[in-house]
Write a structure and sequence with these properties.
The protein is α+β, with helices and mostly antiparallel strands. It has helices at residues 3-12, 23-36, 42-46, 54-63, 70-83, 180-188, 234-242, 259-265; strands spanning 39-40, 88-97, 100-101, 107-113, 117-120, 132-133, 140-142, 145-151, 157-161, 164-169, 199-203, 207-212, 215-220, 223-228. A hairpin with a 2-residue loop joins strand 13 (215-220) and strand 14 (223-228). The two termini are 33 Å apart.
Length: 266
């Protein structure tokens, strides 16, 4: 990314220019990203292919003010962090479902090395607001909840949020291109949770706002409000809550919204 692209990305997430790539700035960038760039899978239901290359990710997230799922969001954020001088490594994880971790490369997360290694993730929906120490096995407190990393016999590490496993993390480095086959599977397979659900969600100052199918869910200071939208309200809801301008509504799957991702985002 060149200087103009970095400035455009920082403007996209409402972040001030970066003077020094330190932990405080990293935490601010992560929080701003979660507040402004939604976790969403609209492209799948709009017939838009999701491509994992730098030009395509920048065009989608920054120029079109869209969001994405883990490969796009953490992929784009890694580009920004690298351009700002942060040492970034791609990590693979397997997301838990019914107490069992999913397939390899099911999720993409980031390692950022400063004085110590940090786990950074802006592509999982509801997770930590700030970086987590990757080399600590003590409980870590974050505005989003209590987090803990637990070693497992395979040499991987489980990430727990409020004592519930979220994903099993590999510690060896990957390249962004390594995730292309699983990204294709996630957007095409009938067995993928993303093809069977429609969601758009972002962090707010007091909670989250989520459009899950036609259900608009707001959580604020522990209170939850749900409203089912009409056809006429859908496009306005994407624009007003997520800054996403669409010329047509994504097709809502006939299936019930997958519990795993709905619960994560609500």
């Amino acid at each position: 990314m060149d200087r103009a692209q970095v400035d455009a990305y920082l403007n996209r997430i409402g972040a001030a220019p970066v003077d020094q790539p330190d932990l405080q700035t990293l935490a601010r960038l992560q929080y701003q990203h979660l507040r402004t760039v939604p976790f969403e899978n609209l492209s799948i239901h709009l017939g838009e292919p999701i491509q994992l290359d730098e030009d395509a990710l920048f065009e989608k997230v920054v120029e079109r003010w869209r969001g994405g799922f883990c490969y796009a969001l953490n992929g784009a954020f890694a580009m920004l962090l690298t351009a700002l001088g942060y040492p970034v490594t791609y990590l693979a994880a397997r997301v838990f479902s019914s107490k069992v971790p999913g397939p390899p490369l099911d999720h993409l997360a980031l390692r950022v090395d400063l004085d110590r290694p940090y786990l950074v993730d802006v592509g999982f929906g509801a997770l930590s607001n700030h970086p987590l120490l990757l080399d600590s096995r003590h409980e870590q407190h974050d505005p989003a909840g209590r987090f803990r990393l637990v070693d497992v016999a395979s040499g991987e590490v489980d990430l727990l949020m409020n004592d519930k496993p979220q994903y099993r993390l590999e510690l060896r480095p990957y390249e962004l291109r390594d995730f292309i086959p699983m990204c294709w599977w996630q957007q095409t397979s009938p067995q993928s949770h993303f093809t069977r659900s429609l969601t758009c969600s972002r962090l707010t100052e007091t909670g989250r706002v989520t459009l899950s199918g036609r259900k608009l869910i707001r959580t604020s200071d522990g209170r939850r409000e749900l409203r089912t939208l009409t056809d006429e309200e859908i496009l306005d809801a994407y624009a007003s809550n997520f800054g996403i301008t669409l010329d047509r509504a994504p097709s809502t799957p006939e299936h019930a919204v997958n519990r795993r991702y709905a619960a994560r985002s609500a």
